[in-house]
Amino acid sequence: MAIASKLATGNPLTRRFVISICQAIKKGEKHFTISTPRNFPNFEDYFKNNSLEIVWDKIAKIEKIEDSNWVYDFTVDNLHHNFIANGFVVSNCIGGVAALDYYEGGLSPGGIGFDIDCGVRLLRTNLTVEQIKPKLKELLESIFNNVPSGVGETGKIKLSFSELDEVLVNGAKWAVEHGYGTEKDLEHLESMGCMKGADASKVSNEAKKRGAPQLGTLGAGNHFLEIQKVDKIYLPEVARVFGIEREGQVTVLIHTGSRGFGHQVCTDYLRILESKFKDKLKNLPDRELIYAPSGTRECEDYFSAMAASANYAWTNRHMIMHWIRESFINTLKMKLEDIGLEVVYDVAHNIAKIEE
Are strands 106-107 and 340-348 parallel, antiparallel or unpaired? Predict the structure, then answer.
């Protein structure tokens, strides 16, 4: 491990990656492989291209300075925005789409991801930065109190298994029926916040145990809830359709998914598929890319459980939105119709769907 640490001192991400490789080799994990792109340079090419006449220097001092602007760290080149999943370096600014034949393809829980229906929801307001700036600190404190964040955090409501089953089948519609959000909100959600084919019976009790107390929570990792502003409008006529009408307009962006519930669903089905389709593991670069072939019972069961997880995630973002609205109303002492906070869109980026 000492050698691994010395090999990887330049970057925390690299260090973690190299050490994980050494640990896997030491344990004798035969299934461990490293996936690299086809255009990944060999050492000779890398050395040639990077041995230029450059004088490297080091930072001598980092000093905090006073600044009147309220700038938030918005960089993507950040350790918390980059991580290794299934042997691949993943970042918020990249993505992948796989199109498979319905009859000849299959479903990979690891390919879809542990945070099923992790997605983003954008809300627009009628307010400007100048209107909320005097109350910004108070507003953020209210939101943090209303929307729990962090690993394993639980929400403001606790559901029974039977109530949770209703969420898994009905999605965001369940939230509206229980006073969280409106019918109009549903029109701006992907699939109107409810994916067909969900079956709560295909979800383990362990997943339900983890998910029942977490509805309405943000989670940790690269999830976030941000109060933003429109910096520049490039196509006014298009922006106007989405209700984005002026620069400086305040928006809110929510990024979260199905929390521990979706993670457990993925974990459960990885185990099921690894046991059922052992013969496929030898041809895969990573065992977490195991898949259920189309037409098998396991494929159908996972799709039903995944759809249930997606409905959980849409409901989760819907309830978070509700408590954001409450925070704005109570802090700014304004009516919701004056504030706005209407849904612009809600889309998932960890999901599988059947298309024609």
Answer: unpaired
The string of pLDDT tens digits covering residues 167-216 is: 999 999 999 999 999 999 999 999 999 999 999 999 999 999 999 999 99
Q: How far apart are CA 184 and CA 11, in angstroms?
A: 47
Alpha helices in the chain (DSSP H): 2-7, 12-27, 43-50, 109-112, 129-132, 136-146, 161-170, 172-177, 183-186, 205-211, 236-241, 259-276, 278-281, 297-332, 336-339
Handedness of CA 33, 36, 42, 46 (dihedral sign): negative
Instruction: Tally helices (H) and strands (E) across the chain.
Output: 15, 8
What phi-psi label fits residue 19: left (phi over 0), alpha (psi between -120 and 50 degrees) or beta? alpha
pTM over 0.90: no
Residue the block writes with tokens 């984005």: 244
What strand order describes the sheet that includes 340-348?
224-229, 249-256, 119-128, 340-348
Q: Which domains does the chain have, with CATH numbers?
A: 2-50 (no CATH), 96-348 (3.90.1860.10)
CA dihedral 35, 36, 37, 38 (to 10 degrees): -100
Helix (H, G, I), strand (E, B) or coil at 56: coil
Nearest CA to 267 out of 293, 306, 295, 299 is that of 306
Cα–Cα separations (whole angstroms), residue 349 to 64, 145, 224, 353: 37, 27, 15, 11
Tokens of 152: 């394993």
Round to whole Å and give the CA distance between 20 and 26: 10
Separation of alpha carbons 274 and 263, rounded Å: 17
- DSSP state for residue 94 in the 8-state scheme: -
